[in-house]
Amino acid sequence: MKYNEVIQIMDAHFLPSVMELYGLEGYEIQLIPPHEGGRNIVYVLEKEGADAKILRIAFLPDRSRDDFLAEVEYIRYLFKHGGSVSNVISSLNGNLLEEITHNQHLFFICLFKKAKGKRLAENYYRYREGAAISEYYYNCGKVLGKLHQLSTQYTPVHHRHHFFDKFNAEYIDKLIPDSLSLLKKKLAELLHALEGLDRSHETYGMIHFDYNDGNYSIDYDTGQITVYDFDNSCFGWYMYDLASVWRNGMGWIQFEPDAGKRKAFMDDYFETVLEGYRSETKLEDTMLDQLPLFIQACVMENIVDAFEVMHNTGEEPGCDEELSYLIKCMEDDIPYLGFFHEIYSCEEPFEYEERKI
Q1: Are 55 and 109 in contact (CB under 8 A)?
Q2: Rg (the chain; Cα; Å)
Q3: What is the pLDDT of residues 299-326, one digit of tens each?
């Protein structure tokens, strides 16, 4: 079922009853345009004198009821224990998750409190007036550190998948074309290295798995960050989320032509992130030393995601300049996403000559 079909079904059959199910009479509802890679129908609901809400309708068939329950139970746990997340709101039936069926197709429905503030992109990547940008870097690490600290104590009722349930040699071999044999070999080596890492509760637990500035809002009065979009949450290493934060920092300096200056900036940036992170939870140096490995794991996730999208939409496998860049970094063992390497161009960031498959 396609995105536009679902919108038509909701408009024609279900939106009024869904609004009633959550006691949302009097709210104005507006569809949020989908972003690339988005997998849900999302509406914002507003009413004078009341908190704004976010209504999410999942329609793809690749996740089960237990998957969604595990996600919303985790979000509720984080919120109840002081995590800065957008809380999930129960229906009038007392359920965190509701479901409806239309022509034998199942839709899963969740309602969330809308996070206060706005995303950085909505403010043209300007931070709040009168505050140093380092405050943002620190808060980004601090909020993530709190979520990870809470995860070390989390005992789920419903379980999300584990990292290796998706990222394993068998799945990758089936997904990626045989013509990319060197890429497959390098990904298998990366997976082998990850398999050897510690998976104790202090290093491995529920993580966001998509922690970036598109998935949290900033209160521009206080600088507080509120996290949402736990769609991809799973059991994995806490260092993976930190590697994502490292990658986020590249955007602030990506047009600097001097690799030495890019390196100096990234060192300072990540030091501030880690200061915030360690104000909430422990991070052993032995795991921090694995940062380059986890940045490669992030690259792997992006590559796998690109081929999954092509597979799910029926496209012939192909490589644009951005995917070609990721593959080149993986095949040639170029660390830190090539950010300090001669492959990188500040004029065409993270692009490489299109790879023929």
Answers
A1: yes
A2: 21
A3: 999 999 999 989 888 899 999 999 999 9
